[in-house]
Amino acid sequence: MKFQRLINQHTNQITLVTAILIGVGLLGKVVNSDMIYTVSFIAASIISAIPIILRAVSALRFKTISIELLVSIAVIGAFIIGEYNESAIVTFLFLFGTFLEDKTLAKTRHSIKNLTEMAPTTAMVVGDDGGTEETDVDFVDVDDVVLVKAGGQIPVDGEIVDGSGHINEASITGESKLVTKGSGDQVFSGTILDNGTVKVRATKVGDDTTFGKIVELVEDAQDTKSPAEKFIDKFATYYTPAVLVIALVVGLITKDFRLAITVLVLGCPGALVIGAPVSNVAGIGNGAKNGVLIKGGEVMNTFANVDTLVFDKTGTLTEGKTAVTQFKDYSKDQLGLQIAAAVEKQSDHPLAQAVVTFSTNHHLFSDDVEVTDTDTVKGRGLKATAAGKRTFIGNLKMMNDEKISLTTQQHEDLEDIQAEGSSTVIVAFDGQVQAIIGISDVIRRGVKESLATLKSLGIKKTVMLTGDNLQTANAVAGQIGIDEVHAELLPEQKVEYVKQFQQEGHKVAFVGDGINDSPSLVTADIGIAMGSGTDVAVETSDVVLMSSGFNELIHAYGLSKKTVMNTKENIFIAIGTVAALLIGLILGFIYMASGMFVHEASILVVIFNAMRLINYRPKMPKLDPDQLSVGEYDLSLKQ
Questions:
Q1: Where are the transmembrane segments (predicted)?
Q2: How far apart are CA 23 and CA 92, in angstroms?
């Protein structure tokens, strides 16, 4: 056992020595020294055969007939019949091929190495006396407070209790842009504080952090086999012994021992065995590097065949936050918005806060507007005296109650805004309507273009399932190009629709926020969670889009298709190579050493082909400048 471990540790050195001995042997041939030629190739054969034979024996202990066994028998056979040059070259090529495989495979797993290296190792724990002590991150407990300075790594998942700064969350979301965070905001282990100083109360530590789960998830995913890999494993179980039998039969029939051992060399299924897993590893590694977590080769294979995307609305197609999306001003100098914001400041209602935020963002909020006599009218809105004017802010019912009439144009504007699914707030003072504000859940930027791109990649149908009202759902769907809408649904009703699509023969992926949509995520063929590392998102879904972006959805779908295609290419290359070698052998063009060279070359070809996936990036859509966005309503303020 110790001897085998020693040999395994020095296999690269053995490969180098073998190459040198082969070089010396060839030099002996040039100077017509048969002794140098023969001794060098004999030594090269023996030295290089040792690690191969040891691996073959180890495999036999587990009742596995490995590629190493085929090569070992072939080399020993060549050595017996005095073809020392053949045996030396075959063993060298096999060892050198293994060396190159290890190097290239290590590159495909580079994303895992990067993730592991990004894991924080120490933390500055704040004591009861306010002092700090540096400790190993494994010794930090939940509810401990840690200090993070500019340029430092946040060692825990937690909540900022003091300070603020800009944080690079690329290790979690795949997005390198800085995120501004302050007291009360959540932060993640492994992210970097670009500037500022913060104190963070730990809510999750060690392997329970989002970063820890990501590393574990990607490691498990790269070890999870795709259907192609499972088939190849089963195929190789029978194929390798079959090669031994075929070689034996060839030897008995032809009485040509050299031909029999050549069949063993050419029949090695190396490229076939390695082709699928290397594609799987490279594809999943690419996803992890770009904020897309795909849970294994089987998920990759299923996702590549998805033809129907089903979306939740709130938090998925929309931002999940209420904001002003339409504004019609009929007052002078935007006085309607200023007074509305001053009055709404008195309320905690989400619609009221949206108005305040909108006016603040457009530098129209003023603390100088005096507000008195505020009165909330249930189901109607607010009454108040603002800037000395009796002001009414609410719905059409309130305007009717107060005998305030809308002009024809205002009626049309109101209906247009409501037709887009927005809630409306009417602002009136001086007996006239001064402004109409449309408030709704903001559609994510780029959704419309992203859906079009997904269809170009192979998606046949897009569906929205939402608990919101039908008018709002239809308005959102119309703006972004959703094919089918079902509204006012409970979570269990969403599940029924997912099952219905599956029964119709569709491969369904459900895209949700990973919390209230968990039943649908589990029911669909592929569950895709939009969410920056929430527990439910990571545990329930098959694919996690860490930054909740539609670019990541495009990347995940395109990557799945590309990986499955890459796997098929590798299988074709492997089978084609074996077929070509056997044909070459029959026609007399291929011999043992040349066959082994082609065999090892085919292994490298499939590895390099898979490595193309490492840098795969789908073409992202260009945003439509006319797409609705809160930030694009500056012009409406100038009406």
A1: 12-30, 36-57, 235-253, 259-279, 571-591, 597-614
A2: 12
Instruction: Give the three-state DSSP class for 60.
Output: helix
| Cα–Cα distance list, 177 to 109, 160, 518 (Å) | 25, 20, 29
Question: b or e along 545-580 (b: 16 or more beta carbons within 10 Å of the residue's beta carbon)?
Answer: bbbbbbbbbbbbbbbbbbbbebbebbbebbeebbee
Active site residues: 312
User: Which element (helix H / strand E) includes 292?
Assistant: strand 292-294
Can you say whether residue 496 is alpha, beta or left, with left for phi > 0 and alpha for psi between -120 and 50 degrees? Answer: alpha
Residues 6+ apart with CB under 8 A from 576: none
Residue 308, pLDDT above cutoff 80:
yes
DSSP strand pairing (484-486 vs 461-465): parallel
Interval 380-414: pLDDT, tens:
888 888 888 899 998 888 999 989 999 999 999 98
pLDDT in tens, 443-468: 888 888 999 999 999 999 999 998 77
> Facing residues of 198 across strands?
148, 163
Residue 456 to residue 454: CA distance in whole angstroms: 5
pLDDT tens string 551-574: 889 999 999 999 999 999 988 888
Position 188: which residue type?
A: F
